[in-house]
Design a protein that fits this description.
The structure holds two protein chains of two kinds. Chain A is α+β, with helices and mostly antiparallel strands. Chain A has 25 helices and 17 strands. By secondary structure, chain B is mostly beta strands. Chain B has two helices and nine strands; from the N terminus they run E-E-H-E-E-E-E-E-H-E-E. Chain B has helices at residues 35-42, 96-101; strands at residues 2-8, 25-29, 52-55, 58-60, 71-75, 84-87, 90-93, 116-118, 121-122. In chain B, the strands form two sheets. Chain B has a five-stranded mixed sheet, covered by helices on one side. Chain B has a four-stranded mixed sheet with strand order 7-6-8-9, with no helix packed on it. Chain B is globular. The chains are: A alpha+beta, B mainly beta. Chain A binds chain B through residues 72, 219, 223, 226-227, 230-231, 233-234, 236-238, 240-242, 246, 249-250, 253-255, 270-271, 274-277, 285-286, 288, 291-293, 295, 460-461, 466, 468, 563-565, and chain B through 7, 9-11, 13, 21-22, 51-52, 54, 56-59, 73, 75-80, 82-84, 86, 89, 91, 93, 95, 116, 118-119, 123-124.
């Protein structure tokens, strides 16, 4: 079988008995689910009962690339990590850039499937056709940077490595998978499952190429995409100069920057932790992922003092979660917390949000100081950093922090202080102000994640067109199609979501068609996105989620206390049913028979239990 | 005349009086003047440097008429100049190339402060 664009092989590694098998990629499946997020989630759905214990041996951990991953067109560096989420119990799909994804493709694999559990720590070394499982006792306990160095010394100097840090080893439910030293497939706790499987690292060296169906057509399309990206003021301009943190002052001045565990929506010291401050005080240089002209990554360093450290970031969400959300205005402390999360391999959004939740419980008297060991007040930079240190090591109070704010708030009997949806913490765009984000956070398939449908692009930048944040009209269709479905498609191709400010599905299918020789079209891409979104929904329904989970924290339904958006609140209950209807779902938020037929999902809906669908 | 408070962020700060980041300065305008008037006649901003205008925190158009005491915050579409060079498989950032070639950065700066070369031919 000959493959263009795709590598053509799925690699299955059983960690219980060490068996390694290779299976050909089913191109019909690839045409329906594209690759990356879509195809890998489809493989998970068919193999893992959605009702399974996410940290049990039956859960599987999948790494997937998209057809565009590694193809050399701009910003084609993404790979995904898919499983049932240990944090949320929903389907998990976290993605990351860097160089690991392309290397996996060059080694000849579209998807890696890890099954079972090893008895002792191991790492997997993949050098093209050769796959070996090796002991990793010496690596256990090491940070990602130390792990990569040791693995490269033991394998090949140019091997690319994805691994877990101490957070994943200790099954922290906010642990991610780390690649290229500092990049994380961060959310949903995918690193905890890797830790449970005692899989410390995956090292890859690939020396094969990617076959192009129509080289001339492909490079023509790639040049056009390149020109569009470097001419785009957001993708290339703002992201490049100030990184993602260019948004801090803008979102804050709008009064939509959640502060002190979402008690307010404007932070008085936002400038101190903004992209401008990062650029002036700690930035060393930019770094790019594979084939990326944007280079949004910030390599930073705090040169001395108690917050000394070096790494990448903080990104917008990170400077917010450890900054405004905790009331902290010390940039070096924020940077330190970010570096620590990198060393532990844990998600910075969940980490900062969990500290903020603990701070509010402490200030309200729900969380005794004797449990923590020190006062944990808002605005206290040093206490924030100490809490992160405990969280990463599970030391003392850190044992509770390491499993995220949902479980922490539950533990102390105050679930209303958890600021998230489906156990995943919200990000740095207030759903009280952005009505699109309110609907999206409530309905996103992995909980309150911003990147599955970041409507701020429309509600602020006017991409694809401007609809004011407070408007409800047309938001249901906007959330559904140009954001949620479109992101599902883009994440499945292997191109970075940040190109979306500059290019659309049209440019992406113009790359996919000559790359793969398959019939990728704009119209099909809309259906593919819709199909992938509904497949993820099917997984969650089988995992036991109902419409009751499509909600927001009580606080988001109350008015903003001050700032330019005072009085604004999330009006989710006014448009949730319209959204369901536009999706082709019934009142209970389940697809109708007609919708399942339209997307070719009837058979999958019948897996893992009695067939069901909802009457319109 | 009336007074409004103005904040400039990111690369627009070069057009503001020396000011700590995030602090507003005051401008005098004729009664009922628009945001456009503020940008061109008072701040003397070149065309197309502003992408987003917030008046009292609400996104507004340049034709918006201001009132005394309004706070106007301006953001650029692209913050600062940047460009890349692609030679074969390698992407060079602005910082890398001059040092590689032993040239100063200014040699590469266009009037717009932005230039890109890709796959051996200019992209714009």
């Amino acid at each position: 079988m000959h493959y263009n664009g795709y590598a053509g092989t799925i690699l299955r590694i059983n960690l219980t008995d060490g068996e390694v098998t290779k299976e050909p990629l089913d191109l019909e499946l690839a045409e329906d689910y594209v690759g990356g997020r879509g195809l890998t989630s489809r493989l998970l759905y068919a193999e893992v009962d959605p009702a399974t214990d996410p940290l049990g041996p039956a859960n599987k951990l999948l790494f997937g690339t998209g057809p565009l991953t590694g193809c050399g067109a701009p910003a084609t560096a993404r790979y995904v990590v898919v499983c049932k989420s240990p944090l949320t119990g929903t389907i998990a799909c976290s993605n990351s850039g860097g160089f690991f994804g392309p290397e996996l493709k060059f080694a000849g694999y579209d998807v890696l499937i890890f099954e079972g559990e090893a008895d002792e720590p191991v790492y997997v070394w993949i050098e093209d056709e050769q796959v070996t499982i090796r002991p990793a006792h010496d690596l256990w306990g090491k940070t990602p940077v130390e792990t990569e160095e040791a693995v490269r010394a033991a394998t090949h100097p140019t091997a690319k490595v994805a691994c877990i840090g101490p957070g994943g080893e200790k099954l922290s439910l906010m642990a991610g998978v780390v690649n290229d030293n500092y990049r994380l497939a961060a959310r949903s706790g995918v690193g905890a499952l890797m830790g449970k499987k005692k899989l410390k690292a995956v090292a890859v060296r690939g020396t094969k190429g990617i076959q192009l169906a129509d080289p001339q057509g492909f490079w023509h399309a790639a040049l056009e995409v390149s020109a569009k990206i470097v001419n785009d003021p957001i993708s290339f301009g703002s992201f490049r100069t100030y990184g993602t943190a260019n948004l801090v002052n803008l979102i804050n001045e709008m009064g939509a920057y959640p502060t002190r565990n979402f008690q307010a929506e404007m932070f008085e010291d936002a400038v101190a932790t903004s992209g401008e401050a990062i650029a002036e005080q700690i930035l060393l240089r930019n770094r790019a992922c594979f084939a990326c002209p944007i280079a949004c990554t910030r390599v930073t360093e705090v040169k001395d003092g108690r917050y000394k450290g070096r790494g990448e970031g903080p990104e917008y969400e990170t400077t917010w979660s450890f900054g405004a959300l905790c009331g902290v205005s010390d940039l070096e402390a924020v940077a330190k917390a970010n570096y620590l999360c990198g060393e532990y391999g844990i998600d910075t959004i969940s980490a900062g949000a969990t500290v903020a939740c603990a701070m509010e419980m402490y200030e309200k008297g729900y969380l005794p100081e004797s449990d923590i060991g020190f006062p944990l007040r808002f605005d206290d930079a040093e206490a924030m950093v100490r809490a992160v240190e405990l969280m990463g090591t599970r030391e003392g109070f850190g044992d509770l922090l390491a499993d995220g704010s949902y479980r922490l708030a539950q533990h102390y009997g105050h679930p209303e202080l958890f600021m998230g949806v489906k156990k995943l913490e919200m990000a740095a765009y207030s759903p009280r102000v952005f009505q699109g984000m309110a609907l999206h956070y409530a309905t996103s398939n992995r909980g309150a994640c911003h990147v599955r449908g970041n409507t701020v692009a429309a509600e602020l930048y006017g991409i694809p067109r401007y609809i004011p944040p407070e408007a409800l009209e047309q938001k249901e269709e906007m959330v559904r199609r140009p954001f949620q479905n479109s992101t599902a498609f883009v994440d499945s191709t292997g191109i970075c979501l940040f190109t979306k400010f500059a290019i659309t599905h049209r440019e992406i299918v113009a790359l996919l068609a000559p790359l793969t020789g398959l019939d990728f079209t704009f119209e099909k891409s809309l259906v593919q996105g819709d199909r992938i979104w509904n497949l993820e929904r099917l997984f969650n329904i089988r995992a036991g989620f109902t419409a009751a989970a499509d909600t927001l924290p009580e606080r988001m339904l109350e008015p903003v206390p001050g700032g330019p958006r005072a009085g604004s609140r999330a009006r989710l209950q006014e448009n949730l049913q319209t959204y369901y209807r536009l999706r082709g779902w019934g009142e209970e938020g389940r697809p109708t028979r007609q919708k399942l037929e339209e997307l070719g999902l009837v058979e999958l809906a019948g897996m893992w239990g009695e067939p069901w669908w909802e009457e319109p | 005349m009336m007074e409004v408070h103005v904040k400039l962020y990111a690369s627009l700060r070069r057009y503001a009086p020396e000011q700590p980041l995030g602090e507003a300065f005051t401008c005098s305008l004729p009664e009922g003047a628009t945001v456009e008037h503020l940008m061109t006649e008072v701040l003397h901003l070149p065309p197309d440097v502003v992408a987003i205008v917030l008046v009292n925190g609400i996104r507004s158009e340049p034709q918006h008429r201001l009132s005394a005491g309004d706070e106007v915050v301006l953001f650029p579409p692209m913050a600062g100049g940047s460009w890349i060079l692609v030679i074969g498989d390698w992407l060079f950032s602005r910082r890398r190339v001059p040092s590689l070639l032993g040239l100063s950065e200014e040699v590469f700066a266009t009037p717009q402060g932005r230039e890109a070369v890709g796959f051996g031919k200019p992209l714009m």
